[in-house]
Amino acid sequence: KMSAYGKPAGDTDFRKKYDLDEYAAKAADREAAERDERKARWEAKMAGKKYYKPMDGSETLTTARNATQDFSRLVGTTTLVPAGAGVGKRGRSAGFYCEACDLTFKDSIQWLEHTNSMQHLRSIGQTGEVRKATAEDVHNRIITLWERLQAQKKDEVVNLKERLAVRKEEDDREREEKRVKRKEAEERRRREREEAVKVKVEYGEDVRIEGEHDEDDMMAAMGFTGFGTTTRK
């Protein structure tokens, strides 16, 4: 049977060919590594010690983290968890997941403790040892911090002046608004007084101004004619 390109083809020729000997050797190496790890874990447990991944020489010294852990950005967020997610620490599930160690932690405190543990440092390729700083490193660090402090002071001075200017503008605006409101209130009261005087001049003193005798009318309706003494002479 010939193919479209003029070459003989079978029903399964399109499938990928695997080298059985190569994969058998990989499986044997993996099983040997797992067996050695189990033995090392058992020996550490019998000795009352914690097992750590052995170093292969490619590790680097431990350095300080530059990034800050911001957990507040996760407040109110939702994470989709696979249906087959585990309920323990092993594997990815709901919580803070560490890809290097394949572990999940339910709260931020456990997560921070894990990131500082030797288990995590070994998993990310660090020895857990910190390089001892020399006198030159300390001197350079002091100079860097001093320059940063001077730059912050300059920014503070500029920002302080700007804040004072903005505050002054806000105070002036508030005073102007209060002055306008006070002037409008005085003008309104003046017009009301002029209207009251005008009504009395036109219609005489017996005219009733709206709201002027409300208290007297209420006392009369309740039967109070005055607050004189009840002592008989």
Automatic annotation (TrEMBL):
User: Which InterPro entries is this protein grouped with?
Assistant: Matrin/U1-like-C_Znf_C2H2, Snu23, Znf_C2H2_jaz, Znf_C2H2_sf, Znf_C2H2_type
Nucleus keyword on record: yes
* Region Disordered, annotated ranges: 168-195
Cellular component per GO?
spliceosomal complex; U4/U6 x U5 tri-snRNP complex
Q: Which UniProt keywords apply?
A: Metal-binding, Nucleus, Zinc, Zinc-finger
Q: Which SMART domains match?
A: ZnF_U1 (SM00451)
Name of this protein = C2H2-type domain-containing protein
